[in-house]
Amino acid sequence: MRPVSLQQYRRKSAARPAGGSVILKWLLCSIALVCVGLLLVIPLLAVFINAFSAGLGAYWKNICQPDTLSAIQLTLLTAGIAVPLNVAFGIVAAWLIAKFEFPGKNILLTLIDLPFSVSPVVAGLLFVLLFGRQGWFGPLLSAHDIHVIFAVPGIALATLFVTFPFVAREVLALLQTQDSNGEEAALTLGASAAQMFWHVTLPKAKWSILYGTILCNARAMGEFGAVSVVSGHIRGMTNTLPLHVEILYNEYNFVGAFAAASVLALLAVVTLVLKRGVEWRAAR
Amino acid sequence: MSVVVQGLTKHFSPGSAPAISEVSFEAPTGGITALLGPSGAGKSTVLRAIAGLEIVDKGSIAIDARDCSKVRVQDRNVGFVFQNYALFEHMTIADNIGFGLRVRKRKRSQIEARVSELLDLIQLPDLRRRFPGELSGGQRQRVAFARALAVEPKVLLLDEPFGALDVKVRIELREWLHRLHDEIKITTLLVTHDQIDAFEVAEHVVVLFEGKVAQVGAPHDIYDQPATARVAQFIGGANMLTSEVQAEHAAVASLRVGVPAGVLNGDRVQVLVRPHDLRLTRPNQDTPDLNLGEVLHLRRVGGYVKATVRLANGQHVSVECPKSEIDALGIIQGESVLVNVREAKVFAEDYSI
Amino acid sequence: MPRRSVLPGFAPSLIVTLSYVVLLVVIPLWALFAKTFTLSFRQFWSIVLEPRAVATYQLSLGASLIAAAINGVIGLLLAWVLSRYTLPAHRLIDALMDLPFALPTAVAGLTLASLYAPNGWLGHPLQFLGVPLVFSRVGVVIALVFIGLPFVVRTVQPVLEDLDPSIEEAALVLGASPSRTFLTVIFPHILPALLTGFTLSFARAIGEYGSIIFISGNMPMKTEIAPLLIVTKLEQYDYAGATTLAVVLLGLSFSLLLVINVLQQRTARRSRSARK
Predict the structure, then answer these.
(1) Which sign, positive or negative, has the C-alpha torsion B336, B340, B346, B347?
(2) Please, which of A226, B128, C39, C196 could form a disulfide with C263 given CB 3.0 to 4.6 Å?
(3) How far apart are CA B217 and CA A186, in angstroms?
(4) Please, how many CA atoms are within 13 Å of residue C158, restricted to the half-sphere of its CB?
(5) Is a pLDDT exceeding 60 seen at residue A16?
(6) Cβ of A32 under 8 Å from any chain C Cβ?
């Protein structure tokens, strides 16, 4: 589940109270640093160190393996489909929920939050039930030779499912804290709905949209469980990069696995940097 | 471009008390009309309804003799200034002001000219490339005005325009609004809970309590002839005294006031006396006890003095007189004075706040 | 009756949102429950209570609980240190708190499995513990601790940062020692947030898949987690079995979601009242 939204970073830090034993402070800080080192820093560094353990040349060869490259390609394609769709949906849904009252709003919110709380494997299972050979639409799809499960569309759908709440929740959190006066002002000045949206609402929400997109993308590219269920693990065709890592690991090709993982780890680092950047900018 | 409002009624949630109920009034063309009342009186609701930002359950709104109940906000061509200004924070001042014109797809040169014109009008010509966040409250307020006026609206609607500002800035802006209105005679409706706004700026006042119109008229008319005790207490300072009617008159210290028709001897009525309609003088031996009062408290406030006096019948009144008078009188706390009542008004309804 | 609003876009946004949600969430869920209902009550329960399934519940629930508890302690410590003291490279460390959240689970699983293996950087020195860290339940807990850490830290940290310092100062002026102040003033205040973080961490851990299958060894009846059993059943085309277990997991997730919502509302209320 998503723990925090951008809105929480907009508050200012309270001043720290004076007093307190220095020994305690040092003790707590040391333990904290050890925990951070053991739990977070070392695992992250290990990915890169292991990836390059056979040298730069081997690393590059691993990356340029055709299967790895197509895994990267598929990951990018999946994100390229899922993220824009979810951004669009997220903005629309946030507008609806923040600005209007209607019966069933709470149920809608719960449904939107659902992917956050569902195990990724269950998410994948849902789509197998719908589009798998024995699924609801299975026979229909087979008749037209359309492949969803064990093919790219299934992966895209599963990814779409697990990532769609991110942007919606971020933008909703923002719209709920702001009044509609800006939009109303635009309307009194004669703006159409599209003009109002474009000139007033979207600029107001831009940091939240960006933040949600960053989180959405990180999850889309890194999703494992849901995609694993629907993909069929066909090398070179239906393997995303996280799945590829698993395959290499199961073949005891550790350096290869780490090389592929390093790409994902790099993505994670970039995500963290961008996330921090947006938090800082939005709080100003 | 007058604004005529008839029977406006709105409930915010079904079954609850209406926010506004049967509100009707007319705002004269080219004049400034104040919608005055305490918080929650429904004044902003009426204003927003006129703009089209609220949809009423009942009633009609006519701008320039044309019914616009079915007209969308975007098409009503009203200028609206929000309480918190609602400037577009990510646009420059020039872009803010020019927004309405850009929406109407005017030519760039036209927009630039109009924006310059308005920047001069609001006396902020150097700020065109700044952003709202860099401006003071008073400056933002004026930009909000300029933005609303840019499209030459038929009616200008101001929602508590001076609410969030310092007293000094408020005073300046009131004068500025007055001068602006002398230049541009646009029908203006102003929502405020501050009677000073109403008195200093408006020519026409609509007093609202709890969603209903209590009185309509020119400011001084409402002051001199309040329709109800509540209006009397809301506008201008007031002492509300109770008195028993004897011989068709109600007595307040030295003054006996005629009572309205239908009030009988023995009834208790409310009598309004304005603090500055009371004058204190030195009593002499002939002064009837009824007219005496004991000075409980004297406080100097700027150029005048506020005194609390206990009347012979035990009720307290607040008296305001110029400092010079009190000095000449030479009275101090605890002394007895003669209370002269110049004017008082009787209200028959049984109203207490 | 929907209240008419002046703001535009109600109908289009309603249609888009509803279609999206129905197509993507409602229909798939419907398929899940429909499939499960093809089973009789007895069949359903016999699958749910299969020994192998029960073992997975025990592992998933047990390991998640332990991991969430560990995260509660470590997370509280980290949140405390981050909000009250200035560490070297403070901003970097603060950003790193989100790493488990941003890092793909497969990468987490891979690196943890290799680190805690007997010949791994951390596994080797820790061999003296005598406990196998990978291919064991301990490994599962380790992975879940990593995954769930940000949930506690990021839930408790804002509450600590919003805490009005004058409340603590008042306690100190009245003579309370720092530890007493913590126990009687601060801790009760952050307790709802801590519980929320704990529950979030727990809920996430139950459904976790990617990071565990690398480190646990996936041995049935021993280190097999519930999600993995679902995948196994799927691969054997035992759709009914898979959906049954999925429904169990889903039911658990929903209950936890309810608990979390209540806790989060409590936290928000406390936070508002403590703010200056």
Answers:
(1) negative
(2) C196
(3) 33
(4) 24
(5) no
(6) yes
Nearest residue on chain C to A242, alpha-carbon basis: C106
Cβ distance C263 to C190 under 8 Å? no
Q: Is the pLDDT of residue C264 over 50?
A: yes
Taking 3-state DSSP, the helix, strand and coil percentages for chain A, each rounded to the nearest 5, stand at 75, 0, 25
Contact B54 C6 (CB under 8 A): yes
Fold held by B3-233: Rossmann fold (3.40.50)
The arithmetic mean of pLDDT across residues A48-61, rounded, is 90
**Is the per-residue pLDDT at B141 higher than 80?**
yes
Spatial strand order of the sheet with B345-347 comes to B239-244, B268-273, B345-347
**Is B351's pLDDT higher than 50?**
no
* Residue A35 confidence (pLDDT) above 60: yes
User: Under CATH, domain B237-347 is a member of which superfamily?
Assistant: Nucleic acid-binding proteins (2.40.50.140)
Is any Cβ of chain A less than 8 angstroms from the Cβ of C91?
Answer: yes
pLDDT above 70 for C228: yes
**Lowest mean pLDDT: which of A32-41, B199-208, C154-163?**
C154-163
In angstroms, the CA C88 to CA C93 distance is 8
- Across the interface, do B52 and C4 touch by the CB < 8 Å criterion? no
Of the candidates B78, B89, B91, the beta carbon closest to that of A188 is on B78
Distance from the B15 Cα atom to the nearest Cα atom in chain C, whole angstroms: 13
- Domain(s) labelled CATH 2.40.50.140 in chain B stretch across 237-347
Q: How far apart are the first and last CA of chain A?
A: 27
Break chain A into its structural domains and give their ranges. 21-51, 56-283
Q: Which 3 state secondary structure label does DSSP give C50?
A: coil
Nearest-angstrom CA–CA distance, A44 and A59 = 17
As its CATH architecture, domain A56-283 has: Orthogonal Bundle (1.10)
pLDDT of residue B353: 39
- Least reliable range by pLDDT among A232-236, B166-170, B312-316: A232-236
Average the pLDDT over A30-56 and give the result.
Answer: 92
Comparing B254 with B332, the larger pLDDT belongs to B332
Q: Quick one: pLDDT at residue A1?
A: 47
Q: Is A154 on the interface with C (CB under 8 A)?
A: no
Q: Strands, DSSP E only, in chain B?
A: 3-10, 20-27, 32-36, 58-63, 66-67, 78-81, 155-159, 187-192, 204-209, 212-217, 239-244, 249-252, 255-258, 268-273, 278-281, 292-301, 304-311, 316-322, 336-341, 345-347
Query: Which tokens hold the place of B279?
Result: 């004058």
> If we measure between CA atoms, which residue out of B41, B69, B68 comes closest to residue B55?
B69
Contact partners, residue A51, CB within 8 Å, separation at least 6: A59, A62, A255, A258, A259, A261, A262
Q: How far apart are CA C45 and CA C256, in angstroms?
A: 22
Question: B147 and A189: CB-CB below 8 Å?
Answer: yes
Question: Using one digit for the tens of pLDDT, what is the confidence trace for B53-64?
Answer: 888 899 999 998
In chain B, list all ranges with CATH 3.40.50.300: 3-233
At residue C1, the pLDDT reads: 37
Q: Which of residues 34-53 of C touch A (CB under 8 A)?
A: 35
